[in-house]
Design goal:
The protein is built from 17 helices and no strands. It has 417 residues and is mostly helical. The chain folds into 2 domains: 199 residues, Growth Hormone, Chain: A (Up-down Bundle), CATH 1.20.1250; 195 residues, MFS general substrate transporter like domains (Growth Hormone, Chain: A, Up-down Bundle). Helix 2 packs parallel to helix 7 and helix 4 packs antiparallel against helix 15.
């Protein structure tokens, strides 16, 4: 029987669980390295004489494995101990980043070697992401899942605000190798912390890999709310990346004060993510999935403001609201997923969902490149904002979405039993 302290739903209640404190510590430590890694990776390519083509190759080789191997990662996450899988994945990433740091420091880095290390890191991520999704539900009591998910987002969002600036200083003063070495060390420390969780393997039928894969796909497709959210998310993420990440800096350079103003927009968005996490620590909505869908529609706001050529004073609050909406959506969605998907299936369900959203990355950039030939930047931004709004609105038309709500104790047993 749990004590009152263990079943409390106060914002910090999950931190009373020792295993969760270990999990959060691993997340915080890893986040400090991951915040520096993109900048260090870019400059490691530049330092060895590479240009845009080389950087594109490196980025693609780190992204492709997360799509190709994610399903395998989901299968393993439902068959073996998730703490052991997290340990091995972080250890593999530590080895890849450590090797990269050494080659960059010694002047032996090439585009091929950097891409190879990125491929290994991406492969490691494809196994750790599904395992982490299910691990939280094993560690924390069901009534504390939302607070736990918010607390897990808190370190990454806090580091997101300061990390790039600190990473820039480290790279500028000491070189990319030191930032990469720090990233490797954080992965290694996180690996040790995660191994100490000692989570049991999920309890479920494991007739064989192919049988588990077929059962996973059947379970995914039978949950209309799950595959429709994934489909809408693919469109939404593609439109967001195309409009904000790709066109945003270009529009800032042509219509605003360039990098300075775009940096402020990025900072406003990151601050919104942090504020959204704080909202989720206090607000416990009943309709989890509909809140997630509606909140994700806020991503259209800064794209519309940029397309409408609004002053920076209006773009900044739009970016702030988009960040709040995105983080509320992520926490609400994750909580709904953990409550409505049986623990023995969460690895595979998370993998199928993740593949859809990761396919949005190349899709969004490709469609934008084609659309830019026919429309100007403002036209493409309006299209991206419209797609985000349409994806959210259509997803709200799915009747099953209104039945994926916060569960009581008896309902949880029925849903996951």
């Amino acid at each position: 029987m749990r004590t009152a302290a263990e079943t409390s739903t106060t914002p910090r209640a999950p931190l009373r669980v020792a295993a969760f404190r270990r999990f959060v510590s691993a997340s915080l430590i890893s986040a400090t390295g991951s915040a520096m890694a993109p900048l260090a990776l870019a400059y490691s390519v530049i330092e060895q004489g590479g240009g845009a083509g080389s950087l594109g190759l490196v980025l693609s080789t780190s992204t492709v494995p997360t799509i190709v191997f994610l399903i395998a990662g989901g299968l393993f996450a439902d068959r073996v101990s998730r703490s052991r899988l997290l340990f091995l994945g972080n250890l593999l990433a530590a080895g890849a980043q450590g090797t990269l740091a050494v080659t960059v420091a010694t002047g032996h880095a090439t585009t091929a070697s950097i891409a190879a290390c990125g491929f290994v890191s991406g492969t490691a991520a494809s196994f750790t992401v599904p395992a982490a999704q299910g691990a939280v539900a094993q560690i924390v009591p069901a009534e504390q899942l939302q607070q736990a998910n918010a607390l897990l987002r808190l370190p990454g969002n806090a580091v997101r605000v300061l990390g790039p600036a600190v990473g820039g200083i480290v790279v500028a003063e000491s070189g990319a190798a030191w930032a990469l070495a720090w990233d490797a060390c954080t992965f290694a420390v996180a690996a040790v912390l995660l191994l100490g969780l000692r989570l049991d393997a999920p309890v479920g039928a494991t007739a064989g890999v192919l049988a588990d894969l077929r059962a996973g796909w059947t379970g995914f497709w039978s949950r209309t709310w799950l595959w429709t959210y994934t489909a809408a998310g693919t469109v939404l993420v593609a439109a967001w990346l195309a409009g904000f990440q790709l066109l945003g800096p270009l529009v800032a350079a042509r219509h605003y004060a360039g990098a300075r103003d775009w940096g402020l927009v990025q900072a406003a968005f990151a601050s919104g993510l942090l504020a959204g996490t704080l909202v989720c620590l206090r607000w416990r909505p009943y309709r989890l999935l509909t809140v997630a869908i509606a909140a994700s529609g806020a991503l259209a706001l800064p794209l519309a403001a940029l397309a409408w050529d609004r002053p920076l004073a209006l773009v900044l609050p739009a970016a702030l609201l988009a960040g709040i909406g995105l983080d509320v959506a992520i926490v609400a969605w994750t909580t709904a997923f953990q409550q409505h998907v049986p623990p023995a299936e969460q690895g595979r369900m998370s993998a199928f969902n993740g593949v859809g959203e990761r396919l949005a990355i190349p899709l969004g950039y490709l469609v934008t490149a084609l659309a830019a030939r026919a429309w100007d930047d403002q036209g493409v931004l309006w299209a991206c904002a419209g797609l985000i709004g349409a994806a959210a609105a259509l997803n709200l038309c799915v009747p099953q979405a209104y039945r994926v709500n916060r569960l009581t104790g008896d309902e949880r047993l029925e849903a996951t039993g």
